[in-house]
Amino acid sequence: MKKIIALMLLVIVSIGCKSKASIAEARAAEELSTRKIIESHYDSKSDFSSVYIRANTKYRDEKQSYSFTSEIKILRDEKILVSIRFLGITMAKALITPTEVKYYEKNGNKFFEGDYSTLSEWLGTDLDFDKVQNLLLGKAMDDLRKGNYRNSIETKFYKLEDATSSATQKAFYFEAANFLIKKQRIEQPQQNRKLQVDYPQHKEYKEGILPLKIVIEALQDADKTSIGLDYNTVTFNENLSFPYSVPDGYERMYIK
Fold it and tell me: Tens of pLDDT along 97-127?
């Protein structure tokens, strides 16, 4: 269960706001500059300070699979609360801020508190608050305005590939109508690690555009883990609460 929560950190009918029609997408055809692609990605409207998301969630690895409900509360740039429920019972909860990550899981009565360096090392990929927030909101996990990228057209999408010489390889794929991200991939070939996040569908609300679906796949050697999120309730700019406390009797977990 602990890696389910950790992967959820890398990682759902509108109530209280009326959505517009589903987003129309377009194939990449004409060549564009890297700068134009990046600017267009960040041009999309994003007019909200908080968002509440409820998602049907599926988890699968080589040995087991689960279906459960995820509740995600985001206070923009400040904190994220993720609750995982099965049959109405809270099985795990995570509180994420720019400086630390806390979570507990009912299976095993364990809890974790630590910074991103510990969690990043355990997951095998660099992680911070902005990356988690961007992943859930359908933005590139990295700030593309600060990087150096090669661009090309691949399988109907604009592709930006990290041009820096690094043991970690990154690629981002965008459709051509609104430059919404369709896929982002992080690979560490020497460690046989790969993380890929796909966004099959998006939806437009008056406050902005969010994904309808997110598919996260993590590969480590021959082991494959996948998480699918279907966002079925989304509300914006509510006065959200972020209750978090570790139940009595839980044992602290240390990740090596």
Answer: 999 999 999 988 999 998 887 666 655 567 8
Rounded CA separation 46/134 (Å): 12
Pairing of strands 208-211, 202-205: antiparallel
Check if the beta carbon of residue 112 is closer than 8 Å to that of residue 93: no
Whole-number Cα distances in Å, 217 to 94, 132, 214: 20, 15, 10
d(CA 185, CA 168): 10
Residue 218's alpha-carbon distances to 104, 139, 222, 223, 256, in angstroms, are: 22, 19, 10, 8, 19
> Token pair of 181, please?
């991200």
- The whole-number average pLDDT for the span 236-254 is 94
The residues, any chain, with a CB within 8 Å of residue 1's CB and separated by 6 or more, are 91, 92, 105, 107, 108
Cα Rg of the chain, angstroms: 18
Tens-digit pLDDT profile for residues 175-209? 999 999 999 999 988 888 888 999 999 999 999 99
* Nearest CA-CA partner of 236 in 197, 215, 207, 216: 207
User: Rounded to whole angstroms, how far apart are CA atoms 222 and 237?
Assistant: 42
Q: What is the DSSP pairing of strand 110-114 with strand 101-105? A: antiparallel
